[in-house]
Design a protein that fits this description.
- It is built from 13 helices and 18 strands.
- It folds into 2 domains: 207 residues, FAD/NAD(P)-binding domain (3-Layer(bba) Sandwich), CATH 3.50.50.60; 85 residues, D-Amino Acid Oxidase, Chain A, domain 2 (2-Layer Sandwich), CATH 3.30.9.
- By secondary structure, the chain is α/β, with parallel strands linked by helices.
- It is globular and about 65 Å long.
C-alpha cells in the first residue's frame, strides 16, 4: 500500500514524486519507458522554472552536466528590428536553460528515487482500480520491479496522480472531460547542430513561421521551426527540405551552420499541440502537467507549468493524506482551483500567440521599446507567463 501512485515519470511526475518523497510520503513512480530516454520538447525552461530547480537543489547538478545558462535573448521581429535583452527575472534568477530531456528527466527521476520514491520502469497502466466510486489503485503491465521480475501487477494507494501526458491513460480511465478546448494552431520541428556561435536564445518571427536557436547540451544548438498547423501534413512529406528552407528564409546566418556534418540527429517534431484544460481532480485521483492542461509550444511554458503544479500538490498533500480521503480530495480540488485562477491569463495569451494574433498590432510597440532593455525583458515575460498583456501595455504607456 502506497500513499500515492504517480503514473508518468517525466517532468511533472518525477518532480511531484521528488517533493512528496522528501516529506516522507510513500510514493510509487511508474512509467512505460525507461530512463534516460527522449521525448518531444521545446527544452526551454524560463527563470521561474530555473528557480524551482535551485530550490530543489537540482540546478547546480544540471549545470554540471554541461547545460549552458542562457542570459541573453534576441528577438528578430522584422528585417530591420531586433530586440535584445535578458530573460524576465524571477526573484533573483535571470537565466533560462534548455536541457536535453534525456538529461533533465533522468536527473529528476534519480533525485526522486534518492528521496525514497520507488520507481517502476517499463510499466504501462492497464486500468485504475475503483471501490465505491473512488480510485484506490492501479493495475500495470510488464513493469520490472527491484528484483528483476515483470508481468502484471496491482498496487493500491490513497491517491493516483496522472502525469502521463497529452494522451493520458489516467484521464481516460477516470473519464476526465475537457473543460476548455481551444483548438490546435501550430506544429514544430527541431534538430541539433554543432558549431553555431553562442548568441543566447535567438528568435526570428515573420513570413508565417518562427525560427528559434539556442544552446543545449554537448556544445550543440537546438534549432526549431514552427508553422501553422495547416502546414503540418505538407511539411511531414519532406521535413528536411521544408525545415532548411524556412531557416534560410528567416535566419540565413543560422542556416549557414546547418550542414549535414554538424547535425547530430534527425529532425523531429510534432503537430500534436492542442490547447486544452481537462477536468483535473476527483475522488482518489488528480492530473498534473500535460495530462491536466496543455498549451501550444509557442510560449515554451510546459516544463515550468509541470514544476509549479508539482510544487502546489506537494505543499498540500502530506497533511491531507494523514487526514483521510475527504481531505485528499479537498486538497486536490483546491490545487486545481488555484491552477486555473493563476494560469488562466497565460493560457489565453498562449492561445492568442499560437493563432498568430496581435502580430501587426505589436510591431509598432516593439519598435517603440527597442532601446529600452527593461521593457524588452518585460515583453519576454509575456512568453514566460509572468507578465500579462495589460501589464505590458501599462508599462509601455
Amino acid at each position: 500500500m502506497y500513499d500515492v501512485i504517480i503514473v508518468g515519470a517525466r517532468c511533472a511526475g518525477a518532480a511531484t514524486a521528488l517533493l512528496l518523497a522528501r516529506q516522507g510520503v510513500r510514493v510509487l513512480l511508474a512509467d512505460r519507458t525507461t530512463f534516460p530516454s527522449d521525448t518531444v520538447s521545446t527544452h526551454l525552461l524560463h527563470p521561474a522554472g530555473v528557480a524551482r530547480l535551485r530550490e530543489w537543489n537540482l540546478l547546480e547538478p544540471l549545470l554540471a552536466t554541461g547545460c549552458p545558462p542562457l542570459d541573453a535573448i534576441s528577438y528578430h521581429a522584422a528585417e530591420d528590428l531586433v530586440l535584445r535583452g535578458a530573460p524576465y527575472a524571477y526573484e533573483d534568477v535571470t537565466i533560462s536553460v534548455a536541457p536535453r530531456r534525456t538529461v533533465l528527466d533522468a536527473l529528476l527521476v534519480e533525485a526522486a528515487v534518492a528521496a525514497g520514491a520507488e520507481l517502476r520502469e517499463g510499466a504501462s497502466l492497464r486500468n485504475v482500480l475503483w471501490e465505491d466510486g473512488r480510485v484506490v489503485g492501479a493495475e500495470f503491465g510488464s513493469g520490472a520491479d527491484s528484483s528483476g521480475g515483470s508481468g502484471v501487477f496491482t498496487e493500491r494507494a490513497s491517491l493516483v496522480i496522472g502525469a502521463d501526458g497529452r494522451h493520458s491513460t489516467v484521464a481516460r480511465e477516470v473519464g476526465a472531460k475537457l473543460v476548455r478546448d481551444a483548438g490546435t494552431f501550430g506544429c514544430q520541428f527541431y534538430g541539433y547542430w554543432s558549431g553555431l556561435p553562442d548568441e543566447g536564445t535567438q528568435i526570428f518571427i515573420g513570413g508565417g513561421q518562427a525560427v528559434l536557436a539556442y544552446p543545449t547540451h554537448d556544445r550543440h544548438h537546438l534549432v526549431l521551426v514552427g508553422w501553422p498547423h495547416a502546414r503540418f501534413a505538407e511539411v511531414k512529406q519532406d521535413i528536411d527540405r521544408h525545415f532548411l528552407a524556412a531557416v534560410a528564409t528567416s535566419a540565413p546566418a543560422v542556416r549557414e551552420h546547418l550542414t549535414d556534418d554538424a547535425r547530430s540527429e534527425r529532425i523531429t517534431g510534432s503537430g500534436d499541440l492542442a490547447n486544452y484544460v481537462r477536468e483535473s481532480s476527483g475522488p482518489g485521483w488528480v492530473l498534473v502537467g500535460d495530462a491536466a492542461m496543455a498549451k501550444d509550444a509557442v510560449t515554451a511554458q510546459g516544463i515550468g507549468d509541470a514544476f509549479s503544479q508539482a510544487q502546489s500538490l506537494a505543499e498540500r498533500l502530506p497533511a491531507a493524506l494523514a487526514a483521510g480521503p475527504r481531505a485528499v480530495d479537498a486538497s486536490t480540488a483546491a490545487h486545481v482551483a488555484d491552477r486555473d485562477r493563476d494560469g488562466a491569463t497565460a493560457f489565453e495569451t498562449t492561445v492568442a500567440f499560437a493563432m498568430g494574433g496581435n502580430s501587426s498590432e505589436l510591431l509598432p510597440v516593439l519598435r517603440a521599446i527597442a532601446d529600452r532593455p527593461d521593457l524588452v525583458s518585460m515583453f519576454y515575460g509575456i512568453y514566460a507567463g509572468r507578465v500579462t498583456m495589460d501589464e505590458f501595455a501599462a508599462a509601455v504607456g
